[in-house]
Design a protein that fits this description.
Helices cover 57% and strands 0% of the residues. With 123 residues, the chain is an all-alpha fold.
Length: 123
């Protein structure tokens, strides 16, 4: 069902998904049901351009896409979204997730000492 863009509409939609009157295909216990539930929540919180951008990202970086989707679902769950997220809003969320998951590369040289009888001559 089409819901208005109000914060309470997302919460009502999430409550509707939790309801026990869902069809068996949409039950949260099956993997298909979980994917369907995720997609329906994301369809409610993302506008068309942001959804297209997220699907393009899924082709290149699926693990980052999962993190962004989880972040969006969590924000919707706690009522932190005031409307649909635009493409620009998605980019900001993506930057935030990228900063949190950024890997810091360090190089450590492990020099081995060779047992040498003329050790003093090396200097």
């Amino acid at each position: 069902p089409q819901l208005p863009r109000a914060n309470t509409s997302v919460q009502m939609f999430l409550a509707h998904l939790k309801c026990k009157h869902l069809p068996p295909a949409a039950s949260a216990s099956s993997p298909e049901g979980k994917a369907e539930m995720r997609n329906s929540i994301l369809a409610q919180v993302l506008d068309q351009s942001a959804r297209a951008q997220l699907s393009n990202l899924a082709l290149v970086k699926p693990e980052k896409t999962k993190a962004v989707e989880n972040y969006l679902i969590q924000m919707a769950w706690y009522g932190q979204l005031s409307g649909k997220v635009s493409e620009q809003g998605l980019i900001e969320i993506l930057e935030k997730v990228s900063q949190q998951t950024e890997k810091k590369t360090t190089v450590k040289f492990n020099r081995r000492k060779v047992m040498d009888s003329d050790e003093d001559d090396d200097y």
